[in-house]
Amino acid sequence: MGHPRAPPQVNTQTNLPEFNYGQFSVIRRYSDFVWLAEQLYRDVPGSIVPPLPEKAVVGRFSAEFVESRRRLLEKFLARLAVHDELSESRFFKLFLQADDAGLAAAKAERKAQAKHDAEHAKASKGGGGLSGISSWFDDAMTSITVTMSGSSGDRSVEKSPADEKIDEVVAYITNLEVQMGNVAKHTSGLMKRNRELANGLFEFGLAFTLLGQMETDPLAAALTKLGHASDQLSLLVTDEVAKETAHFEEPMYDSIRVLGAVKAALAARAKHKHALALACVDLEHKKALAAKLHGQPGKEERAALADRAVEKAQADVASARDAFEQVSARVIREMERFKREKANDMRRVVLDYTAMQIEHAKRVEAQWQNLLPELEAIPDGAAADDYYAARAPPAPPVPPP
């Protein structure tokens, strides 16, 4: 990736005809990845948009952080590339191949469109009545309250079999998030203890090496060898911690971020369901008003306007229902895919962790096995006395009388 401050380079290889080249590269900042995720969430509501690594405030230029972010951003793009719908999004394709000017123009266009949509929504909600009263709830509360309230938040829309299935998913995700949080917490604790073990082994080895310098052979050799072995074990544990961090701890926290993406997909469905409920209530309100105006002398013109308002409200309900059913079907498909991928990912992580533990144990055992014959070769008892006597300096000659 070059200098830690340099934005990552995204390299793409493809044989798909919709791309201009089979191999190309672009430079993208972290904010570009965030923009892409936001567009995908809006462009394909109800899909599980893969999570991005969290933005760090401290230590963001360290080699470990840069490498971790590179892996997670690569995983983000890899997940998009194999997703049936998200990979077809024009924003994903634009992100992969547009130059800086093209990406900036797309951002400006989307910003202008979002501003226009917000003004249009505000105008449609600000005309009084039910829509104006409930607009604050639609904008401010939907993403928080109804995300985990399942399908029962809108009584105006009859609960369907899909709603029942979503209720089960919500309960499952809620419990899974708690359990994954516990696993991640204890995994971090284990990584911390292993780092402390690595430091402890280094200090342990240094202490024995210094002690050996105070002694004479063969004790000095034994102490020095033990110190060297402990130092090597410290390096082994340090290397193991790095591997476990990348291949076990990091995937655990990534799984928690994926659960956040799942909740966002559920929130999109809840928002569309809430929009349908508001449209249904608005239709009933306009029907009641039209019925009240009909038959009243002198109000024929207002009654005709009310009838047209009813027709528009009926069209709004039909549009909201179509959108909700499309998003609902997408969410259910996404939940099935999520469960399959979660099971496969967890299986792979656990297998990798187990294999790492076996390999690490073999390397640790090899260090002790190599040390053992060297320590056993050091004489003890009478042999040690002979060893020291043979190496004792000769006695000074006795001067003649």
Labels describing this entry:
mainly alpha; two-stranded antiparallel sheet; 10 helices; 2 strands; elongated
Q: Mean of residue pLDDT?
A: 84
- Element pattern in H and E: EEHHHHHHHHHH
- What is the number of helices? 10
- The whole-angstrom Rg is 34 Å
Strands, count: 2
Strand content: under 5%
Globally, the shape reads elongated
How would you classify the helix and strand content by structural class? mainly alpha
Query: What low-confidence regions span 5 or more consecutive residues with pLDDT below 50?
Result: 127-150
Distance between the termini: 84 Å
Helix content: over 70%
Strand order of the largest sheet: 1-2
The largest sheet, given as strand count, sense and whether it forms a barrel, is: 2 strands, antiparallel
